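Exam revision sheet. Question 4 asks you to relate a sequence to its structure. Input first:
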Amino acid sequence: MDERVRVVIDGEPLAVLPFTTVAAAIAIRGVGGTRRSVTGEPRAALCGMGVCHECRVTVDGHAHVLGCQTPCRDGLSIETMR
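Answer key, structure tokens:
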């Protein structure tokens, strides 16, 4: 069975497979980055294992969550810092 979980990324709904990471959901959605650098350049997940911290997002109101380490669950609200 192909059950999906529904998340909201920057106000836009998206259905993904269970255990998809937040960083992967953001990439699937086609968002160009998760945050901006101090010079204004878009930044996105780089290492995929929680070391680089480039995937920081706000999840359910909690800022600076590592998107590559956070699995999606039904109803999750994700805000990029772009």
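Marking note for examiners. The chain has one helix and seven strands.
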